[in-house]
Amino acid sequence: MDIAYFILNKCLIYLSDLTLLSIVVFLNSNVAILRLCEKSLKVREIISAEHIGIFAADPNSIAKAEGIGSRLSLPVINVRDAKPLILEVSNTHVSLVYTAPKSPGATLVDFVGGKMGYRSKNSGFKDQDIIKACGIKKGMRPTILDATAGLGRDGFILASTGCKVTLVERNPIIALLLEDGIKRASEVTQTADIAANITFHNCNSVKFINAIISMDMPEVIYLDPMYPHRTKSSLVKKEMRALRDVVGDDFDSDDLLTAALQKASKRVVVKRPKGAEYLADKKPSMSFDGKSTRFDVYFVG
Ligand SMILES: C[S@@+](CC[C@H](N)C(=O)[O-])C[C@H]1O[C@@H](n2cnc3c(N)ncnc32)[C@H](O)[C@@H]1O
Questions:
Q1: Residue 242, C-beta contacts closer than 8 angstroms, at least 6 positions apart
Q2: From the alpha carbon of 225, which atom of ligand 1 is closest?
Q3: pLDDT for position 37
Q4: How confident is the prediction for the chain on average, in pLDDT?
Q5: What distance in Å separates the CA atoms of residue 229 and residue 226, rounded to the nearest whole number?
Q6: Ligand 1 mean position to 205 CA, how many Å?
Q7: In the chain, how long is the greatest CA-to-CA distance?
Q8: At 32, is the secondary structure helix, strand, or coil?
Q9: Going by CATH, does the domain composed of 114-299 fall within 3.40.50.150?
Q10: Which protein residue has the closest C-alpha to ligand 1 atom 25?
């Protein structure tokens, strides 16, 4: 398989914006693993953070690119394809881009246009299993903690129902893309009210959840950790590939469920691929089975 593995520098740390804790969070055992499915790279190799850069799309965006470079401890580059993977920064967007020919297109969080934007405009979310699994119905708008925010698609669906949603994402690159998308959504009339329902934190959810005190317990904690896929056929969607390449596998999902079960006041919802084993081998109270996805619901309290 033509897969190259990238390892970001061991010092890729970030200060949590969780002022309550003010902790320094290390990413996946101090190492962010970037896995690239890259046809032009023939040899499986392990390379360092020198292989990812921040690139300003135009001269007006250089200061913004430098700010992001210093936040992520990554270099700002002048030549676009000087690195196989770049965060391309413009005045309006930040996107993750593979620079080699025939790479998948740019990945960015877009709640305004694209698929999410279209669906939010057309309120197509209400019948989805995720809504039912989270207990959202007429007159019921629970507070939700989405502890595995990723690119924010599920969190945005939940927020679009009117629920107050706290998103937590630990990977600093994914967090940056997500913050960028939320900011743009907040600036556009058709999505501003949805964005106003969202609060975001860039930190580890196990620590975040464990720090929740009883009066602040969310009614629902939603979990969608990376499921360890290995085949190319499972990497169909461009966004999913980019997410998987940057994040790798989530090895602490069982800890996340254990913490969530103690701090949700009503239920914990876990998204799994259809047919996958239960998280932490723990049988849920009930499940919603879809075509390719299952939502396991654990009632608590
Ligand atoms: C499959 S993705 C989630 C996709 C998301 N539901 C969406 O709709 O875009 C899993 C994400 O959870 C994040 N994650 C996993 N464990 C985490 C933890 N303990 N703390 C914070 N983020 C975590 C990963 O970094 C990854 O971005």
A1: 96, 104, 107
A2: 10
A3: 27
A4: 81
A5: 8
A6: 9
A7: 56
A8: coil
A9: yes
A10: 171
